[in-house]
Amino acid sequence: MGQAGRTTRAGNGIAGRLPVALAGALFAVFAALIPQIAEGHILMLALDWVPALGISLSLRIDGLSLTFALLISGIGTLVLLYSNSYLAGHPHYPRFALFLTAFLLSMLGLVLADDLIVLFVFWELTTVTSYLLIGFSHENATSRRAALQALFVTGAGGLAFLAGLILLGAAAGTFEISAILARGEAIRGHALYLPILGLILAGAFTKSAQVPFHFWLPNAMAAPTPVSAFLHSATMVKAGIYLLARLHPALSGTGTWLWALTIAGAATAVFASVMALRQTDLKLALAYTTLMALGTLTLFLGQSSAYALTAFVTFLIVHSLYKAALFLVVGCVDHATGTREAEVLGGLGRAMPVTALAAAVAAMSMAGFPPFLGFIGKELKYAGALAVASEPALVAGAVLLANALMLAVAGVVAFRPFWRPAAGALPRTPHEAPWPMLAGPVVLAALGAVFGLAPGLLQGALVDPVVEGFLGTEAEAKQLALWAGVNLPLILSLATFVLGLALYAAHRPLRAALIRLDAATPGMDAGWDGFIDALRALAAWQTGLLQSGVLRRYLFITFATVLLGLGGTIVARGVWAAPEGLAGVSWKQAALVALILAGAALAVITRSRIAAVAGLGVTGIGVALVFIVFGAPDVAITQLLVETLVVVLVAVAMLRLPRLGPRRRRPADAALAIGVGAAVSATLLAVLLAPLDRRVTAFFEATSWPEAHGRNIVNVILVDFRALDTFGEIAVVLIAALSAYALLRGTAGRGEK
Amino acid sequence: MSWILSLPLIIPFATAIAAFALRDRAAGRWISVAGSAMLLGTAALLMARAMRHGVIAAQMGGWPAPFGITLVADLLSAAMVGITAIIALAVSIYALADIGGRLERLGYHALFNLLIGGVNGAFLTGDLFNLYVWFEVMLIASFGLLILGGRKEQIDGGVKYVTLNLISTVLFLSGIGLLYGMTGTLNMADLSRAVETVENHGLLSVVAMMFMVAFGVKAALFPLFFWLPAAYHTPAFSVSAVFAGLLTKVGVYALIRMFTLVFDHDTGLTHTILLWVAGLTMITGVLGAAAQSDIRKILSFHIVSQIGYMVLGLALLSPLALAGAVFYLIHHIAVKANLFLIAGVAQRLTGHTELARIGGLYKSAPLLAVLFLIPAFSLAGFPPLSGFWAKYILVKAALDIEGWLIAGLALLVGLLTIYSMTKIWAQAFWAPHPEGIAPALSRIAPGARAALLLPVAGLAGLTVLIGLMPQPLLALAEAAAAQLLDPTPYVAAVLGGAP
Questions:
Q1: Is the N end or the C end of chain A the one with fewer CB atoms within 10 Å?
Q2: Which of A110, A576, A672, A722 to mutate against chain B (most B CBs within 10 Å)?
Q3: DSSP letter string over B463-497?
């Protein structure tokens, strides 16, 4: 589905061109800001948004955010241009362009935000838009699964991140990032520093796919290739890296920060570069190299030395350039040949010379050969690794292994398909890609070469301001240079070339071995399925337990809750009143109680419906007699009438009901009923101990005749003092009649719609 | 000022009578729309007055409080009446296309307006027994709507609904009797003062528990929510939308009102219980949703889950938390009613609401897809939609008082909400229809399409608007919370200089 529109003739019209123009214009705006930022200015803009929560819509452009903004808008422009050809004529292109543009804008918002909550808003927007992009081939179940996985993993991290941000905001006393960066000392000393760090890292690591949260990223390859290029080079996964970099001045410098980032970064880098060699799908191989790069970037962010941070910035730019270029190259290859399989592809150099050249240049930068920017990046990485405070050998070793594997993968992706003969026939005869699809790879690869030859351009414009931002104004970034003299990093570089070329030479048998190893070890991706299944099972079990569909069980639980609530509070609060005045109970009253109890008992025990109704009737009449005894004959008359009517009507209705089955004894039900009754009675008795405040009754007695002109107080209450109640109750009766009418007529006419 | 408080009752009741008289004609349904529109206008005026004058009160029949019945509107009441009117208007427009002639002849529009009248009465009354009366009006009107049409599963759901709700009614009535016995008054403002002179605090707590269980059933709290998932997926879509939006929220409103105004003597017990119940309600509801495969059943369980959030705000009882509860109430009503309305459109287009049997909406009905995504992602708490702020405020309120566990739970439930919303999205929208139907919106006649989509779009727009500009609603919620936490103006407005 991703390549549904293979012809380039059918254009996408305005929906194709407008986003390119927008992204290009944004890039131009950011590029125009470079001189100001290079001079060390920081641009700020703030608008009120939710003052009640202390949240303002504020932006901050400094070296770090400008670097990201340039990468996002620049690569975004090229990717949108590329997509317009890649998905030419796709019926859903307008949606695609909308999502991709929204994604681009969200990313920009994320890196420009100067308010933690605003940052989070854009953070989540990238999650949502990437969900829609990964699931673009929506009729494909794999795409849907990958989209959910990405959403769920990054969404879970996002929620932890939110908690972390709230706590960070509380610890710093503000959500304004600029202010927070200045309060690093206080934050690191705060009692909640560790939870804050843990929660924020959870957000950053899931977003940046650090081991063990890495598994969603290769699956996100279900998205169309330009999306992958964008997601992997400048956006989405870089959001986590950006976050770590952004908060570096506030949070870094502690042992926990150092080790959490170093371990996660190193593990991710090595694991991913091994996995990259295992892949035969070029796009997947690149996906794993992205993980490797993310791991390396995280690793360097763990440090605070100028070397490490210079290495971070430089490699960030290097990686964005070559990774976007190579993904777009793979897209061209796929587009032209119909396959991305390394085992199948070959001999494309002649048919696709421009693509091949761009691929070669980008891959040289990726492999770290001079004179490309990647070489400088690699040198700095070694210098940075050797400068780490503890265990430099371990860090340098991890970086060396990852770099060598990277070189091998660069060969697999960008050399073999073009310059080695194909193993067999390709699905389609290859042809060169159209210019909009070449623009991206060529421009990005060329930039890698230009910056390599003239690193000063990059240094002054972006690297220095970023490193200054990390370290404060006194410190300086380390020099970016192709030739830094014969030193340990250079020797390590040479070792990388030797090891990398050896790995490339042996990559096919190695790959076969890795595939076997991978198949034999359980992966996180399978764990995902297990997790979802477990979640469903838990949900089904719980729901079966609670929402059983049996009314009797619902009633039991409801009454049990009543008993627990009343009984528990009676016990907990010691509410117990011995009933007073039992001695004053006359034989008449006792007899009435006995009558009421007997009626209730009959209703409960009997197996005949009619007898049960009669039992209830006895109870009702008993209550009416109570009213008579205590001097309320009018109420008693009403009660008698109601009881009689109910018994008659219910009895008539029951004649039409089927006979009751044999009744089972249910001791639990009996105990519950007695318990609830006892709790309510105990409460009632306790209430009766205190005298009634008669001020309302006194008012009724005093005003009934003189002001309301009625001698019967009950009547006056009903029609005047509390007429609104009576109105409501009349409404209830009418609505009941209306419902009954509807039910009778409705069921009679059942079947028609 | 009395008319502005009684109009939200008079209008729906008058509309109901007219709609019933004209139930055989097309005019009946338009009367329903006109009545709802008038109600919305009145609600706007009421809101404006409440914002300008603070708490406003009117003594019915001219009898001074606490002897007669008082109608009273503070900001919470006014806001609830306002959102009720919005939902009433949206649903009555939707019903133009959704409710067929048969249900209209059976009195749908009359029952609908009576329900709205009952809901408004519950929000506006300042008298505990009168609140009980409005609960009865609502219960019986909703029962009538629930079984309207008389299909078997409707009757089955209706029986569970009415049985369990009657327990609530009886408990509520008993609680009223006991509270009256202790204080000698039914006026809520008067009660607020009277309970302070009650010496037996423990006994007051016992009575409070009675109210908590009674309202807990109405609000569908754990473990009292059974009636809701049993019933909400059975009636017409208009009916389930108005139920989903309003019914449980009356229970939540009653809880908020009583447990700030009257029962605030023993918060260590009552509000701690509420906190636990809120957590359990959130998690059991969302897990219940995860187990379902029918759109309306998923949405029903989510109501339960989200009631937990609102009660959480009440349980934490800080100004921010209460504001969060009020904000959540308003947001939730708009979003949840809308999702049920959308489920109705989806059912029309694809023939079902069972996820396994539908699909293809994203491809064929992109407008509906957008209209679904907005409330669905708002419900799941994604920014910049209303649900994000609702969740954010409550989580922040919980973290502010170091309620780590409950804050974590609220976030976890948010994640699981995402899971169910994307389940609907992936199946009903992304996946192709199993029978190959292309469910385009053009399958619905233009007039009906407008009637169905207009309210959906309006409510979605409201969600986006609140999301992008949360400040006005938040300011309202904060002011409402301040009134709840300090009932002096409420009491003064109701009782004036009365003894």
A1: C
A2: A722
A3: HHHHHH--HHHHHHHHHHHHHHH--HHHHHHHHTT
What is residue A510's three-state secondary structure? Answer: helix
Indicate yes or no: CB of B143 within 8 angstroms of CB of A739: yes
In whole angstroms, give the CA distance from residue B211 to residue B171.
7
Q: Which long-range contacts (CB under 8 A, 24 or more apart) does A628-636 make?
A: A629/A588, A629/A589, A629/A592, A634/A712, A634/A714, A635/A714
Supply A707's token pair: 């002001």
Give per-residue burial for A167-189: e unless 16+ CB within 10 Å, then b: bbbbbbebbbbeebbebbeebbe
Half-sphere exposure of A57 (CA within 13 A, CB side): 11
Neighbours of A552 (CB within 10 A): 10
The β-bridge partners of A46 are A58
| A59-89 confidence digits (pLDDT tens) | 999 999 999 999 999 999 999 999 999 888 8
Task: Count CA atoms within 13 Å of residue A650 on its CB side.
Answer: 15
A565/B213 Cβ within 8 A: yes
Please say whether the beta carbons of B72 and B490 come within 8 A: yes
Residues in chain A closer than 8 A to B65 (CB atoms): none
Answer yes or no: do A569 and B209 touch at CB < 8 A.
Answer: yes
Residues of B in contact with A725 (CB under 8 A): 69, 129-130, 133
Question: What is residue B129's predicted lDDT score, i.e. its pLDDT?
Answer: 96
Domain residue extents for chain B:
292-488
Contact at 8 Å (CB) between B111 and A706? Answer: no
- Per DSSP, A110 falls in state H
Three-class secondary structure of residue B275 per DSSP: helix
Whether the CB-CB separation of B194 and A693 falls below 8 Å is answered with yes
Hey, how many other C-beta atoms are within 10 angstroms of the C-beta on A594?
11
Following CA atoms A188, A193, A196, A197 in sequence, which dihedral angle do they give, to the nearest 10 degrees? 60
CA distances from A741 to A562, A745, B137, B367, B373 (A): 34, 6, 17, 40, 40
Q: Please tell me the distance from the alpha carbon of residue B7 to that of residue A309, in angstroms, as a whole number.
A: 68
**Contact between B111 and A688 using a beta-carbon 8 Å cutoff:** no
Weakest-pLDDT range from A456-465, B70-79, B237-246: A456-465
8 A C-beta contact, residue A482 and residue A490: no
**pLDDT reported for residue B1:** 54
Most B CBs within 10 A among A137, A175, A558, hence the mutation to make, goes to A558
* Rounded Cα distance, A60 and A110, in Å: 11
Chain A / chain B CB contacts < 8 angstroms: 303
Q: Which residues of B touch A536 (CB under 8 A)?
A: 290-291
Could you read off the pLDDT of A565-598 as tens digits, one per residue?
A: 999 999 998 887 776 667 777 888 889 999 999 9
Per-residue model confidence (pLDDT) at position A473 = 61
Domain ranges of chain A: 273-505, 516-547
pLDDT in tens, A111-126: 999 999 999 999 999 9
Cβ of B67 within 8 Å of Cβ of A699? The answer is yes
Q: What is the DSSP letter of A752?
A: -
Contact state of A573 with B201 under an 8 Å Cβ cutoff: yes
ipTM: 0.94
Whether residue A274 is predicted with pLDDT greater than 90 in this model: the reply is no
Q: Which residues pair with A47 in a beta bridge?
A: A57
Model confidence, pTM = 0.94
For the four alpha carbons of A179, A180, A185 and A186, in that order, the dihedral sign comes to positive
**How many Å apart are CA A264 and CA A727, to the nearest integer?**
70
Burial class (CB in 10 A: 0-12, 13-18, 19+), B17: middle
